[in-house]
Amino acid sequence: MWSFFLKNKNDIIYLSLLLFSVIIGPYYRKLGPVDFKKMVGTLLGIGLIIVVSGYNAAHPIFSGLGGIIAIKLTSIKKCHIFAFFFMFSYLIVFRLSSSFSTKGPSGQTNLIEMIIVLRVVGVAFEINGSWLAMTQPKKEKELPGKEVTQNVAENRPPKDDDFVEIINPDFMDLFHYVFNYIGLLTGPYYRYRTFDDYFKLPFSKYVNSFGFTINTLKTVPLYISLYLAMSNVWPLDYILTAEHNRRHFVYRMMYPWVLFAAFRQRIYAGMTLAESVCTSAGLGAYPVQGKNKSGHGPSVDYLKLKQMPEREARVAKYDFKTVESMDVWGCETAVTLRDSMKVWNKAVQYWVAVVVYKRFPVPSLKIHAALFVSVIWHGYHAGYFFCIYFCPFYLMAEDIYVKLYYKNATGFKKTVVGFILWFLRSHSESYQAAAFLLLTFDRIWVYYSSMNHYWYGVWFGFLVLGLILNKVRSMLTRRPPPVSAGVKSQ
Fold it and tell me: Which parts form a coiled-coil structure per UniProt (predicted)?
């Protein structure tokens, strides 16, 4: 038992702090007045950083303060650019510091630094984006698109724009947002707007936080048990051994499945606990009529929700989709990699979409910019590049087969094709995850070489065959129908 504790000491301490954050949530939710409540949340956050990081706590605290100062000292037109480059430059320096010291920052400190980066850069883009949306002349609206027409036909309110009011917090509000304990240890990411609403709107008072928290937490013991069992029976380093290389190819081919399955259980446990920190404190609760989305919050009638009377708020139906990170069932059952990516760490994917993908000035490079920032945010190890940058190339092939055989299929055919796509998607993710877990190029190369880099060959053949089949299908659909025998040529 003691050896197990020593081996997993950092994880056990981190798990204990997450549970502590869940337990204090109901007490924090009831605090008042607002300024006192904000200060308590900030002190708790800084305390957690110090407990987790020790003297390395200087890194997230200094970078957070530096990012806030960069926002406030630059113009609203440029604050997002300065904040972005400052935070990511510091993130790189912070990680390189561990290469020159045996007592570098721990993995848990790295997680906190990653969340600090999301918050500082995210609020800077909120400030700039709201200013652009509210002050710049809007383009003339074109004819209603399919989505707008459908909303009108079904008598649904149109979706809000990304920004419907000016967001410009002062220094202290930024300080409280960046260092508040809720979500600081491992997420989820939430907007400054969500944080501000938590203190100003009555929703956290009337939502059934206890019920949501219990419902969220009930699966955590299962995730932890599965992770411990699988990681002990099928350890990661085994795939680098000579014994593994002597195994049958099918065994070696399927070994990454259990590695990735164990990794998923760990992520599910951490993300679920992180969501529970939010639900126990009531942060992220909005009435369901807001059509709330992960990371974003209400997507329709946000300004009306802000004006909701207390009597309506008391009886409203709520959800916590705003702080939902993982759709576990969706991750396990998604047929395609594209769908799987949409339900994995949704709050962070929202951040990447609104901060990088939507705002990158070169349309043809948007996806590459988003992937590159995602890689750098995770770390500089080769495994992150191998894992994340392989996705768009696999999607090229997958999209062809979805269009040809799955999209319009029905009945048994759709089930069979769906299973094949699910298997290929799962295998591709597992193969990529092996690189993500092995991290360094030398370890990745040893493993992939032992497997003859087979999946890249399979994927390439998969793509080439798909392109041929798609070309044949296009030729057949363009071919004119044969002239009837009874029709004479003119």
Answer: none
Banded model confidence at residue 136, pLDDT cuts 50, 70, 90? confident
What is the spatial distance between Cα 129 and Cα 7, in angstroms, rounded to a whole number? 46
**pLDDT of residue 485 exceeding 70:** no
Paired with 287 in beta bridges are 318
8 A C-beta contact, residue 331 and residue 344: yes
Structural contact between residues 311 and 329, judged by C-beta atoms closer than 8 angstroms: no
| Phi, psi angle pair for 375, to nearest 5° | -65, -50
- Per annotation, catalytic residue among 110, 176, 345, 381: 345
Q: Give the 3-state secondary structure of residue 284.
A: coil
Q: Please, which residues have CB within 8 angstroms of residue 109's CB and are 6 or more apart in sequence?
A: 49, 52, 53, 56, 57, 59, 60
Q: For the purposes of burial, counting CB atoms within 10 Å of the CB of 347, is it exposed (0-12), middle (13-18) or buried (19 or more)?
A: buried
DSSP 336: S
pLDDT reported for residue 483:
58
Neighbours of 291 (CB within 10 A): 20
What DSSP character marks residue 408?
A: T
Strand partners, 297: 293
Distance CA 469, CA 463 (A): 10
Q: How many CA atoms does the CB half-sphere of 120 hold within 13 Å?
A: 33
Q: Please give the C-alpha separations between residue 410 and each of 108, 397, 400, 419, in angstroms, as whole numbers.
A: 47, 21, 18, 13
- What is the SS3 string spanning 164-190? CCCCCCCHHHHHHHHHCCCCCCCCCCC
Closest CA to 108 of 274, 355, 325: 274
Query: Would you say residue 227 has pLDDT above 50?
Result: yes
Greatest CA separation for the chain:
94
Distance CA 438, CA 441 (A): 8
Q: Is the confidence at residue 28, as pLDDT, over 80?
A: yes
80 is annotated as an active-site residue: no
**What confidence tens digit (pLDDT) does each residue in 44-90 have?**
999 999 999 888 899 999 999 999 999 999 999 999 999 999 999 99
Cβ atoms within 10 Å of 78's Cβ, excluding its own: 12
Report the distance separating Cα 31 and Cα 179, nearest Å: 18
Beta-strand pair 286-287/318-319: antiparallel
| Chain centre to alpha carbon of residue 120 | 17
- For residue 100, what pLDDT band results from cuts at 50, 70 and 90? low
DSSP per position, 101-152: -TT---HHHHHHHHHHHHHHHHHHHHHHHHHHHHHSPPPPP-S--HHHHHHH
Residue 268 near residue 223, CB atoms below 8 Å: yes
Residue 355 per-residue DSSP state: I
Identity at 402, one-letter amino acid code: V
- Based on the residue annotation, tell me whether 345 is a catalytic residue of this protein: yes
Select from 61, 78, 79, 58 the least CA-distant residue to 70.
Answer: 79
